[in-house]
Amino acid sequence: RLQGDWSSDVCSSDLSLRQFSQAREYTLFQVLLAISWTYLARVCQVDDLAVTVPIDTRTSDEFQNSVGNFVNTVILRGQFDGNWRFEDILDQAKERTIEAIQHSQLPYEKVLQQAACHRDEQGRPALNTMVSLVENTEDISLGATMCVPMTLDLQTARFDLGIFFKQHRHGLDLQLEYSTEAFSDKRARQIAEQWL
After folding, report:
1. What is the pTM of this model?
2. Exposed/middle/buried for 19, CB within 10 Å: 0-12, 13-18, 19+?
């Protein structure tokens, strides 16, 4: 784990993003992934990048009523050239997410080993950005017990940059988790503001 911090901002209503994605038969996550890829490619001035994405691996009916964290991390690679339209990036995001779902049972560490992924001095994989969408986490009930989500300030970061979208009935929140070694508070706020 890295020393880290959070920056939270409320994006404008996600209604237009939902309408856009539904009209073109993309998921909201695929649209957010395409936007994230585009933003990161421009900021980093690269035409080939990979982000990590958490994915639900509770695919078997026998686990549907089990309590636990059934999540794996997958790698989604975006490749661009100067002539691509945003629709091309959306198509790529859709294709890559479908492929990731099909291969979601492969352990993340095994994928990194097979890909001979470059690691930094501390042994962390060079894949240092995560993108995630959490949908409708407001009211969770377990029988008669109501659960309320809480935000914990752990002062750590799992990646250099985590772009976390939380969807709720009022819109979409953006939370950035960032390594304080890689980003200053000012730069993290600039990133969040550029999304709004």
Report:
1. 0.81
2. exposed
